[in-house]
Amino acid sequence: MKKWLILLLPLMLFAKEEVVIKVAEMHCPLCTTAVKKALKSIEGVESSKVTLETKLAVVIAKDGIEDKTFLEAVKTTGYEGVIVSRHRLKE
Amino acid sequence: MQRRAFIKGCVALGASSVILPQVSILEASEPKSKTRIFFVTNSYNLKHENIKGLTKLWVPLPQETTYQKVSDFKFNSNATNAYVTDKNSYKARTLYAEWKNGGEKLLEVTYTITTYERNSDLSKATASTKYPKDVAHYLKPTAHIPTSGKVKELALKIIANSKTPLDKAKAIYAWVTENMYRDNAVVGCGLGDAGKAIEQNIMGGKCTDISSVFVALLRSVGVPAREIFGIRLGSSRYSKACGSSDEKGLAKITGGEHCRAEFYLDGAGWIPCDPADVAKVILTEKMTLNDPLVKEVREYFFGNWEMNWMGYNTARDFVLTPTPAQKPLNMFGYPYAEVEDEVLDYYAPAAFAYSFISQEKL
Fold first, then answer.
1. Binning pLDDT at 50, 70 and 90, where does residue B48 land?
2. Which of A74, B158, B299, B302 stands 20 to 30 A from A12 (CA)?
3. pLDDT above 70 (res B102)
4. Which fold has domain B119-232+254-306?
């Protein structure tokens, strides 16, 4: 059992997730930059891609960051976010 | 430093077959007076942490109309590719440049613009509401200019028993200049979200905010109206709030972007208005609607434009060409740039970076 845990530990430590957040109130291209910057400021976030047309932010982050951390970051831009999906990425 | 060949461009904006003149027949009847000539230089040195990322820049260019003529248009750049286009739904004239290989991203645009004061003859207006197709386009709602719900409800209350388009416009102009005020805390020219302003009773704003409410109210009661995005070029005879320059006619116009508005009357054509500058004069000069200067400006800016300003376009909630990563664009009164899919902050000229100057021929 211990052996398995030791073998899985690196995977658990470095596992990544894709988190998709809807920010419906974004209304101009500059909003995307503000939301992107806010999400990238979260520790453990590797990248974020924000698209005005779909009003979606796609974040790649280390596994385990709580929903509220993402949503609070979005809130600093003056908008409300809603988590659409999150799934673990294959290594 | 990577060296790159400079692209030089020289386009006769008024004569080009690519760039269509945006002149309505009725505008042509306006009297020409008080001609002014300005030499404009726009300089760009784009900055971004992703220096090797594909960088794209769209620069708004002045439209060619009866009240402003462009000549000696030139640009000089180390861009990979640069050209002038008006291929978008509003025919907004655009200088597009892109850099593919990192290094400095430089562009200088120069032109001469001759402006003619606009004075309308409102006695020519008829009560007809049969509008040409290109005019009727400006009755349609956009994402930021809704024409139903609370907007229409408010507009109907304001116009009360007004019957003609001119009377409706007078009532709406009076209401906007009486109820809206300039809020200097708003970034840039403001977002111009007329729906939000009316629904949430946000009466403070800047020029795009005030003009967009004016336009939305007019459209909602069947009067064609539009914002015109542009930039101040020199001194105003009314107040430094409406434009300034030094004694030699030099004006540092970075940050001088200004949105005006027009509405359409059959028989008289597009009527120039500037409700936002009434609010700016009130704030800057620390006056009220009852002060003689404000009374004069308020009356003048219904039907007249002092042409120490030039107009770029009337585009709202539209898509530029070539298509950017982020769309649609709310308005095109500022240069717009992307590095890959990231938008440069066009409200921060020093960080962007761009600077504009205007030298008036005295």
1. confident
2. A74
3. yes
4. C8orf32 fold (3.10.620)
Cβ within 8 Å of residue A32, ≥6 positions away: A26, A50, A51, A52, B326, B341, B342, B343
Asked if residues B44 and B335 have their Cβ atoms less than 8 Å apart, the reply is yes
Q: What is the CATH number of the domain that holds A73?
A: 3.30.70.100
pLDDT average, residue stretch B3-16: 62
Q: Where in chain B is the domain with CATH 3.10.620.30?
A: 119-232+254-306
Q: Are the CB atoms for B43 and B105 separated by under 8 Å?
A: no
Mean pLDDT computed over B297-321: 98
How far apart (Å, rounded) are the C-alpha atoms in residues B92 and B26?
A: 20
Residue A6 counted as domain residue: no
Chain B residues contacting A via beta carbons under 8 Å: 143-144, 191, 193, 324-330, 336, 338, 341-347
Which tokens sit at B214? 């004016």
Q: Among partner residues A27, A30, A53, which is closest to B345 by beta-carbon distance? A: A30
Percent of chain B topping pLDDT 70? 92
What ipTM describes this predicted complex?
A: 0.81
Work out how many domains chain A is built from and give that number: 1
The answer to whether B216 and B223 are in contact (CB under 8 A) is no
Expressed as residue numbers, the domain containing A23 is 15-89
The answer to whether position A7 is within a domain reads no
| A77 in a structural domain | yes
Chain A residues closer than 8 Å to B338 by CB: 29
